[in-house]
Specification:
95 residues; mainly beta; three-stranded parallel sheet; 46% strand; globular
C-alpha cells in the first residue's frame, strides 16, 4: 500500500495479499520516519509476507519518537516471513 508514510491515513483497509522483501506492512511499511504520521480507523485482513521477517499487519516500523500514532486499527490477516532473520514478525511490527 504505502512504503514511507508522512501525514495521515484514515478509514482505509486491505484485504489483498502483499508480498515484499523487507519492511512490509498491510497498510504502511515505515510510518513517520522524519515527521509525525498517523494511521486512524484502518484494518488489514489480507495476507502480508516478507522474506527477511521485517513485517507487520498494520505497520512494520512506527517511529513513535516523531509522535507517530496508530489508533483504532486492527489486523486479522496472516503475517509471516519465508526466511525470518529476526523476531519482528508481529501484528504491528515495532513501536
Amino acid at each position: 500500500m504505502v512504503l514511507y508514510q508522512i501525514g495521515t491515513i484514515s478509514n482505509c483497509f486491505n484485504t489483498g495479499e502483499i508480498n515484499g522483501e523487507h519492511l512490509v506492512g498491510g497498510i504502511v511499511g515505515i510510518q513517520g520516519y522524519n515527521s509525525p504520521a498517523y494511521i486512524n480507523n484502518c484494518y488489514n485482513k489480507g495476507i502480508v509476507k516478507s522474506i527477511d521477517g521485517y513485517v507487520g499487519g498494520i505497520s512494520c516500523v512506527n517511529y513513535t519518537t516523531t509522535g507517530s500514532e496508530i489508533k483504532n486499527c486492527y489486523n486479522t490477516g496472516n503475517v509471516s516471513a519465508t526466511e525470518p532473520t529476526n523476531d519482528y514478525i508481529r501484528s504491528n511490527c515495532r513501536n
